[in-house]
Amino acid sequence: MNASAPATMHEQTIAQLSAGLAAGQFSSEELTRAFLARIERDNPQLNAFITITAELALAQARAADEHRRRNQAGPLTGIPIAHKDIFCTNGVRTSCGSRMLDRFIAPYDATVVERLHAAGAVLLGKTNMDEFAMGSSNETSYYGPVRNPWDVNAVPGGSSGGSAAAIAARLTPGATGTDTGGSIRQPAALCGITGIKPTYGRVSRWGMIAYASSLDQAGPMARTAEDCALLLAAMAGFDPRDSTSVDQPVPDYAAGLNQPLAGLKIGLPKEYFGEGLDSAVAEVVTEAIAEYRRLGAEMVEISLPNSQLAIPVYYVVAPAECSSNLARFDGVRYGHRCENPKDLLDLYTRSRAEGFGAEVQRRILIGTFVLSTGYYDAYYLKAQQIRRLISDDFRRAFEQVDVIAGPTSPTVAFNLGEKVDDPITMYLSDIYTIAVNLAGLPGLSLLAGFVGQRPVGLQLIGNYFAEERLLNVAHRYQQVTDWHDRVPSAFA
Amino acid sequence: MSLEVDEVAKIADLARLAIRAEDAPAYARNLSAILELVDQMNAIDTVGVAPMAHPLDKVQRLRSDVVAESNQREQYQAIAPRVEAGLYLVPKVIE
User: In chain B, what residues touch A336 (CB-CB under 8 Å)?
Assistant: First the structure.
């Protein structure tokens, strides 16, 4: 290693590492080796990565160093990152946390992967996740649960639990995630990092294995809002290959970070501070809101009257779309195939029953039921109508306020095994995040404090395409607080 | 709404999932609990509310009907469970 390369590279944010690379303090190869060494040391305990791409990472790092020598470097050139194992990576296993795709080598790159690669980011590996992104604790993964770096007896949240845990433990400075009902924001909260789910359509879904297509959205996860801004700038933008991608220019997210917050109107939905919210979590969130008052923001009490319907609506819409999307896994063209099928039907039904875990099968069954003859109007149509009412609640709120704030999750991280046998209790972990997906709005979670050893997330919700505003509001908080600098003691 | 074991078997058949008989009661219990949660929707009057299929109320963008993909059969078949002579193999369908 270069004599001047600091041994503490893993403690730095992406913005700091980018400056260090630009100043020649260390090379991308040195940086990549440092993170690979940490992954090798700590991943056996955390299980945050399903696949580690060490050789590929070093080759990409050397290429990044070469680009820098030729003065072709951008802010992400040579920065190591990880991808949630839901994004197709050409030539690299893409398992989606499922036995179904245990041996699936993706034949192409997802748009998100392609864009971050083009921006010069280095791929350390693919992170663990709930199977097909269905779960809130990372316990439905075929590859076993991820442990929370703040307390290894606790879950990291899900479904992007591997990405969140890897960032919290400083095994990578940033990672991608996906969020269908809270899968970026809830693990970001439970692991004490920053994560943003952009507006539906902001980031391409092409090459991202589909769960519920009208809700799925990819976004960045990192320690700070500033880092998320750098990653999102590379990820976002129009993609003709995704028919729901929105053709709208991508702002310079980093440039907007320092806007003052004086006069900003923050809405506090009374439904997010009522029954079901843990009182210690409420205290931390209230303190974060007080910090925003000191920054000059004005608080406005608002109401999102249909909030309690978000979970019922989600558990119709998401399973319905999942049952349709996952019909493609038939054991014929790719994915798991059962041994010695006696006929074609046996091939389909056994391959699928062996390839999918219990939670995925539950959601396929619910989705098949609600879409079956005689039930469509009572369930799917009804859910889509209430989805409109939920969305209208937000529309009215944003006539009064600029940003909405509240807890990301009603509790801190729960213990491994605590909720795994009770799907309904598990679903309630996403009570404050799901409505945002139903409405298609952007939402961000940032670390706002702790209850004991376990982190608490503050959720900020913005109007459509207000990612720049959300990142700015989160960044200003991180300028006057130091929660985002805390490191779990076992991973310092 | 609750589901009985025989209804679960029917849905599993539609979903092409070979559920083991001994697992059916647990599925019936869990699925019934989910549907009970979902039944909260029934308390809401939705007469005249337009269903929302897309969060931004956009319609599907169409492209011109021209060939945009190249043939990548060999690459795609390299990850298939069973292929022969460029064909995907499945158990015999017609006797």
Answer: 81
**B14, B19, B88: residue with CB nearest A353:** B19
Each residue of A380-420: pLDDT tens digit?
999 999 999 999 999 999 999 999 999 999 999 999 999 98
- Report if residue A470 sits inside a domain: yes
- Give the nearest chain A residue to B60 (CA atoms): A243
- For residue A487, the one-letter residue type is V
Structure token pair of residue A133:
């992104």
In angstroms, the CA A419 to CA A426 distance is 6
Q: How far is CA B58 from its chain centroid?
A: 23
A97's tokens: 């946390």
Tokens representing A490 are 């076992």
Q: Is residue A335 part of a domain?
A: no
Instruction: Say yes or no to pLDDT of A190 above 70.
Output: yes
Q: How many domains does chain A have?
A: 1
Residues of A serving a catalytic function are 84, 159, 183
Contact at 8 Å (CB) between A296 and A260?
yes
Q: Kindly provide the ipTM of the predicted complex, given to two decimals.
A: 0.96
Residue A245's CATH number? 3.90.1300.10
- pLDDT value at A4 more than 60: no
Domain span at residue A245 reads: 9-264+462-491
A427 occurs within a structural domain:
no
A94, part of any domain: yes
pLDDT tens column, A207-250: 999 999 999 999 999 999 999 999 999 999 999 999 999 999 99
Sort out which chain B residues have CB atoms less than 8 A from A353's CB and list them. 17-20
Helix (H, G, I), strand (E, B) or coil at B13: helix
Place of tokens 């809830």: A186
